[in-house]
Structures
1.
Amino acid sequence: MSRRVPDLSVYLVTDRLLARGRELVDVVLAAVRGGATVVQLREKDASARETLELGRALLGRLRPLGVPLIVNDRVDLAMALGADGVHVGQGDLPPVVARRLLGPDALVGLSITGPADLSTLDPAVVDYAGVGPIFPTGSKADATPALGLEELARMRPRLPVPVVAIGGINAANAASVIAAGADGVSVVSAICSADDCEVAASVLVRAVRQGLASRK
Ligand SMILES: Cc1ncc(COP(=O)(O)OP(=O)(O)O)c(N)n1
Ligand SMILES: Cc1nc(C(=O)O)sc1CCOP(=O)(O)O
Ligand SMILES: [Mg+2]
């Protein structure tokens, strides 16, 4: 297997509708200055063409910085963009199909919403899991019930790939999510809606470090 999973510690998922009127590229670049390590383009209201344009603009800025861009749901757009990978959920194109289309070097992430999903993750195909929602979230209309930290900790040993936790994660609870076994925190509103997206990302970086230190 030739791909290497990048640093997933602060994984930004975009939502320009939550960005308080700011340009998405500005929000993303501020987050990266603050220490965001991965960006997922997730604009549920955008047309394919709009997503392609947003993706091109982001990729042009992120690639020189070495920050991977993952596309939510749309394997076709990930291919068209030459993005670093795709994130698929349990109702999206199956990971094995995404892998076949994108090839061996692409990153393929899969959502895990509870113990019943664990058997759907083949580590030969999937590079990382997005486990959630951990806490209630207002950023995903069709989110499943919150799992909580104890369920995350129970599931973690059964996941043979790196794990990012998602759903309701913020500066106040990020360290606890890492302490429960996640390798990274994935956030929408904690960065996109923050007064200062750079500061918000840097606070999450510190919280992740604190969570890692608590595991030693
Ligand atoms: C990192 C990460 N984890 C989980 C999700 C959710 O994906 P999915 O279940 O397909 O839901 P949508 O994001 O498509 O609404 C994610 N996007 N990223
Ligand atoms: C995109 C997404 N996926 C989720 C899942 O549980 O799979 S929760 C979610 C939204 C997370 O937004 P916020 O950080 O603002 O709570
Ligand atoms: Mg999806």
2.
Amino acid sequence: MPQRIGIFGGSFDPVHLGHLWIAEAAREQLSLDQVRWIPAATSPLKPDGPVASDDHRLQMVRLAISGNPFFVLDDREIARGEVSYTVDTVAEIQKQHPDDELFLIVGSDSLASFDRWHQPSQLLELATLAVIQRGGDAEIDVSILKRFCDDARLQTVKNSVVPMPLIEVSSTDLRRRILGNKSVRYQVPAAVEAFIRSEKPYQ
Ligand SMILES: Nc1ncnc2c1ncn2[C@@H]1O[C@H](COP(=O)(O)OP(=O)(O)OP(=O)(O)O)[C@@H](O)[C@H]1O
Ligand SMILES: O=C(O)c1ccc[n+]([C@@H]2O[C@H](COP(=O)([O-])O)[C@@H](O)[C@H]2O)c1
């Protein structure tokens, strides 16, 4: 029986409760059999790279998703190194799972920058975008994809928007809080908060 696989890429610098909530909402709404969490080595639109080390980000994601049987940590982008183009990652997963259906989970800010992604048409052929509205962002507008796919594909993306409450947590804000010695309690899982306190990935 074909599986429905969610692919969730991010800098996860650090992973936060927004990430966990949207991954779980996508899993539930789209009846996904698994969600693969894929920390980027360097996100193409964040050329300065992440602040925390690859190893620290992997450890924080591992702690965050532990106990959820649907969530899997996939370290292929960090193992590959360099700039992490999502189309390469998704093509590789598609080769390994030729009979399965792939969903790429993204926030509305990622959708809004999609015309600057590498090989957007190819990517839309390989996976369906599952978009989540982000607090503070303009309303989801899938018309940005029009240039890159046909109407049927556009409709599938519209149908795969994941409805959920708006969350305004962001990694950038959390890093600012950590540097300012402010609390990140309840915005990251308790185990991640303890990790940040003991391992100091942002110092
Ligand atoms: N609060 C949120 N609501 C909806 N989507 C989110 C939210 N936070 C992150 N995302 C989405 O999760 C994916 C991975 O996010 P990422 O690791 O870049 O964290 P981030 O909080 O967006 O980081 P930063 O604030 O530093 O840009 C992206 O597609 C992003 O749009
Ligand atoms: O492939 C691309 O061109 C591309 C451009 C921007 C972002 N992405 C991916 O989108 C995910 C979220 O990226 P970011 O910049 O919000 O951390 C992460 O997995 C990135 O590798 C991918």
